[in-house]
Write a structure and sequence with these properties.
Largest sheet: 7 strands, mixed
Bound molecules: adenosine-5'-diphosphate, 6-O-phosphono-beta-D-fructofuranose
Strand order of the largest sheet: 4-3-2-5-6-12-13
Structural class: alpha/beta
Length: 328
Amino acid sequence: MAEETNKEIKTIGVLTSGGDAPGMNAAIRAVVRMAIARGLKVKGIKKGYQGLLNEEIIDMGTKDVSDIIQRGGTVLGTARSMEFKTPEGQKKGAEICKKHGIDGMVVIGGDGSYRGAQALSRNGINTIGLPGTIDLDIACTEYTIGFDTAVNTAMQAIDKVKDTSASHERCSVIEVMGRNAGYIALWCGIANGAEDILIPEKYDFNEQNIINNIIANRRRGKTHHIVINAEGIGHSVSMARRIEAATGIETRATILGYMQRGGQPTAKDRYYASIMGAYAVDILLQGKTNRVVGFSKGEFVDYDIEEALNMVKGINEYQFEVAHLLSY
Ligand code: ADP
Ligand code: F6P
């Protein structure tokens, strides 16, 4: 259900919240430049909701976002704020917005950040969320800012590990990020031609299957065996030890970690983040609030935040089956 107000928007605030993601800068730039193009003022809030509570608020002009579209991270900084999870903190945040003349807000972050956006909306600040997370774990959208860059970074790293793994005829357990979601693992599993792909949505914790697969592959003459393990399953080091003990094949664990969150955003992340940032400004100008922007079936769209948070995203069965069948 669309919530709309008649409040005229004159000044837009923008903040990044939760884990950073490549492409957040493109989104910030788009919010700033689109708002200015539409005759509005823009304030940047540093360090997420905590920065709002600390009144770390700066005026932003077109020049302030020059030369940032190609940079990883977020020029506004990001943080996690316990204080903003409390009703008092949320009320204080809205009051600070009003004090600084901010009548519309764009929050770039994951689903935790949307809860904060809902709270600001409830407290009278028209607020729009943009999906900023490398995990792709937001149900209302087929695209999240940062996923494309993260998956490409992970893919390139895994290619490198695969080279050395083949030279030494080793098995490699490579852990990729994704909190409780297996999208980075699934995409790398296909893109890197991994022999096993372990994702939290599907894993049955039967390690013997992996061990049997490794032994069978070695008998078939494969010189390497890549197991991509999602962070949501974790324990890659002990898994590698157990695999080595059971198969007699040297096995190493590599945890890719934060490298997946940094680096220059891909063209896709720059492009989609730019359109989403501009779109957020335009729906604020239409009087919308408590909405989140998504990409679905080839279109940029927006949903009520509660509706978006209640949606459930599953791993596509067919794609998961293909990943498995192509690994032989
Ligand atoms: P992400 O946005 O990447 O999911 P978090 O879950 O850590 O990251 O949320 C980012 C921030 O959003 C939190 O530190 C907090 O300030 C705010 N937030 C999270 N949950 C809530 C909530 N239920 N109510 C208000 N604010 C919240
Ligand atoms: O949500 C993005 C993400 O990088 C997850 O993949 C990971 O679980 C989490 O953030 C790590 O968060 P932190 O920055 O708090 O260590």
